[in-house]
Amino acid sequence: MPSWQAISTTSQQHAGTVAREALYFVGVTTSGSSIMTLFPAWARHLGLDARITGIDVPLGAEPAAYRACVKAIADDPAARGALVTTHKSAVFEAAGDLFSELDPYAGLCREVSCIVSADGQVRGSAKDPLTAGLTLDHMLGSDHWASSGGHVVCFGAGGAGLAIMVRLLSEAHRPERVVLVDRDPRRTDVAREVAAEMGVDAGVEFATHGDPVLNDALVAAAPPGSLVINATGMGKDLPGSPVSAEVRFPAEAVVWDLNYRGDLVFVDHARAQTAASGLTVHDGWRYFLHGWTEVIAEVFGLPMTPELFGRLARVAEPLSGRAGAGGNVAGALSDA
User: Fold this and answer.
1) InterPro entries, alphabetically (predicted)?
2) Does residue 322 belong to any structural domain of this protein?
3) Most C-beta atoms within 10 A of its C-beta, which of 78, 110, 243, 334?
4) Closest alpha carbon to 42 in 326, 316, 317
5) What backbone phi and psi angles, to 5 degrees, belong to 137?
């Protein structure tokens, strides 16, 4: 039996007709993602004759499962491509040789988040550095670090966490200090290698543990105005939060949880301190939107302009199921 399960929803142009093209979504619990409702609405808005099909792969699956996913996408004549969420690093590691082409970010970040399928071949790219940058610019403003003395503490060094590091270290004005924390030493080792490949040997640190008390201390030691990120998947794919309920965020900190659905315990910890400490709290909604719209643009050959993104965001908002998306939890964006 395969270790993945397909779940699909169809966007129809006419009653009784099935869309001719397919966009695959490789995740963990794809049926719970807002994209299963949003994509049909977006497809109608964009004039695409396309449906979305989710492929659920359990965390820690065997390499054969990821290879089977990529082969299934390549072999489906209706497939235009796919978005990969939680498994993007695993797809690169287990199935990288199946791609006819990988973009530079895929090689640098050791991940594939976007798959384009044509003529039985697949091309892979890593969109997270781009989508993280778009989201960070929205949250912080462009060139924020030129005048900010804040640090960055990012919990989670794989996938999105690694891509965020790449984006931050690529900027002309970088944060004075970036700390990546992960319980998996393989992830911190890879992040260290990537920083070295980028020629960065100062201002970035790595910690390998999963102790929330130690994480609390890292957050408390950060100066005012710091950026604190949950990129672990905890609160959605895994229960809990990388920090404890006793955590104390720096004054005027920006707190970003890459999840937009789930228990969002990390967001709850931050919201409890918003008034007293002047925090700005973002969930993963805007990151989710940028992630999906950039992949849709790549797969279907569309120019993703700010104007088009704004239109798609407005289509998405009433379908998101999120209360008060524009409030203090300011709609940042997540994986899926």
Assistant:
1) NAD(P)-bd_dom_sf
2) no
3) 334
4) 316
5) -60, -35
| Same domain (yes/no): 116, 262 | no
Instruction: Work out the end-to-end distance of the chain between its first and last CA atoms, rounded to an integer number of angstroms.
Output: 26
All residues at 6 or more sequence positions from 199 whose CB lies less than 8 Å from its CB, including other chains: none
User: Rounded to the nearest 5°, which phi and psi values hold at 328?
Assistant: -70, -30
Residue whose pair of structure tokens reads 């990288």 in the numeric block: 96
Of 211, 218, 272, 210, nearest in space to 245 by CA? 272
d(CA 333, CA 132) in angstroms, rounded, equals: 9
Looking at 72, 102, 126, which one is the last position of a domain?
Answer: 126
Least confident of 19-28, 300-309, 327-336: 327-336
CB 170 within 8 A of CB 104: no
pTM for the predicted model, two decimal places: 0.88
Strands (E), the chain: 5-9, 21-27, 50-56, 79-84, 101-102, 114-118, 121-125, 152-155, 178-182, 204-208, 227-230, 254-257, 280-282
How far apart (Å, rounded) are the C-alpha atoms in residues 28 and 334?
A: 14
Evaluate whether 319 touches 41 at the Cβ level (below 8 Å). Answer: yes
pLDDT given at position 4: 61
- Nearest-angstrom CA–CA distance, 202 and 69: 39
Structure tokens at 241: 């939060």
